[in-house]
Amino acid sequence: MTLDTAARERDLEQRLTNHIQRFLLEPGVGFSFVGRQYPLEVEGKEYFLDLLFYHLKLRCYIVIDLKMGEFTPEHAGKMNFYLSAVDDILQRPDDQPTIRFIRCRDTKRLTVEYALRDMKKPTGVAEWRIKLIESLPKQFKGNLPTVKELEAELFKREEGP
Question: What global pTM score does this model have?
Answer without folding.
Answer: 0.61
